[in-house]
Amino acid sequence: MVFDPRYLLLTSDQRKQVFDQFVKSRVKDEYKEKKNKLQKAREEFKQLLEEAKITSRSTFKKFCAQYSGDHRFTALNRKKEQELIFYHRITSLKKRDKENRARLRKMR
Predict the structure, then answer these.
(1) Rounded to whole angstroms, how far apart are CA atoms 33 and 20?
(2) Cβ-count burial of 63 within 10 angstroms (0-12 exposed, 13-18 middle, 19+ buried)?
(3) Are 53 and 91 in contact (CB under 8 A)?
(4) Which Gene Ontology cellular component terms are annotated (predicted)?
(5) Measured distance CA(76)–CA(58) in Å, rounded
(6) Please, what is the Cα angle at 50 between 91 and 55, to 5 degrees?
(7) How far, in whole angstroms, is CA 103 from its chain's centroid?
(8) 46, 47, 50, 52: CA torsion to nearest 10
């Protein structure tokens, strides 16, 4: 940017203003990229949970042992977030199982 002839035509105040704008836009872009990358990692982790065929009785420890080598598992770095998504999935499976049992009781 410093070697661009258009940049050299500006006064020092204008250069500072242009540079500040550039830095702000670059920070915004990096934030968006990071946010999108994290969202993609979450979606891939959820997809892994779908494909893993976990049940309502599955444990996070066994899941980790079995899938720790998968790139979708390692893409989501924070163990706490992995655990949170895993237990959210388990909760939804338990709820579905409970609804299915209730539906079967009604049919009888």
Answers:
(1) 20
(2) buried
(3) no
(4) nucleus
(5) 20
(6) 50
(7) 35
(8) -100
Helix (H, G, I), strand (E, B) or coil at 3: coil
Q: What are the chain's domains?
A: 5-107 (1.10.10.440)
d(CA 95, CA 83): 18
Tokens read off for 14: 């204008």
> How many residues are recorded in the chain?
108
For the entire predicted model, the pTM comes to: 0.73
